[in-house]
Write a structure and sequence with these properties.
With 193 residues, this protein is mainly alpha-helical. It folds into two domains: 20-80, Fe,Mn superoxide dismutase (SOD) domain (Helix Hairpins), CATH 1.10.287.990; 91-191, minor pseudopilin epsh fold, CATH 3.55.40. 47% of the residues lie in helices and 11% in strands. The protein has helices spanning 21-42, 53-59, 63-80, 91-101, 104-117, 165-168, 172-179, 185-191; strands spanning 122-128, 134-140, 152-158. A three-stranded antiparallel sheet has the order 2-1-3, with helices on both faces. Strand 1 and strand 2 form a beta hairpin. It is globular and about 50 Å long.
């Protein structure tokens, strides 16, 4: 299976000012495209050649293959949940959020705090555990919650510097504040079921 660059559900200029067109060009067309090119080369004539990204992530013990496949999956998951048409979250996802954090604003503060504490390059996730409760977790580098089949990812924020450095330099906190202005809550709700 040859992997291809995902088509974004929005124009790259539409996420501005939260994410500039330049950031989106580098992040999507260069960083993500490089992971795809690398993976396509790495899996030629291997047992992974005809597998889905999820299958490769779960089966690969080869770090270059795992890292590239997981980064593709993580980036696709991230980009799919962004929108220029922000709306409030539906009551179903709010109910789950309020069950743990009491309030959407408190949840955002806790998510941002976790993302700021992610010392390495990596990802901050909202996941649902096996009992149906929500949790905020960090993963380093390319690691992803789907590798272990124990948590269902609902939302992720890319906290690798390439995700925000053009627009925010070292101001990760400002990037995180603006991240909430472009979340597609409908997509998060779809992932919850």
């Amino acid at each position: 299976m040859k992997f291809e660059l995902m088509e974004l559900p929005y124009e790259i200029s539409e996420l501005s000012p939260s994410l500039s067109q330049e950031t989106m060009q580098y992040h999507h067309w260069k960083h993500l495209a490089t992971y795809i090119d690398n993976l396509n080369k790495l899996i030629i004539n291997t047992e992974f050649e005809n597998l889905s990204l999820e299958e490769i992530i779960k089966k690969s013990l080869n770090w270059p293959i795992f890292n590239n496949s997981a980064q593709i999956w993580n980036h696709n998951f991230y980009f799919e949940a962004l929108t220029s048409n922000w709306i409030n979250p539906d009551w179903k996802i709010l109910y789950l959020i309020n069950e743990i954090w009491w309030d959407l604003e408190i949840f955002k503060m806790e998510f941002n705090k976790m993302a700021l504490s992610n010392f390495w390059s990596g990802w901050t996730w909202l996941v649902k555990d096996e009992s149906g409760l929500l949790e905020i977790i960090n993963t380093s580098n390319a690691w992803t919650p789907i590798s272990e089949n124990k948590k269902t990812p609902l939302l992720t924020c890319d906290v690798w510097e390439h995700a925000y450095y053009i627009d925010y330099r070292n101001r990760r906190a400002e990037y995180l504040e603006n991240f909430w202005k472009i979340i597609d809550w409908k997509k998060i709700e779809e992932r919850n079921y």
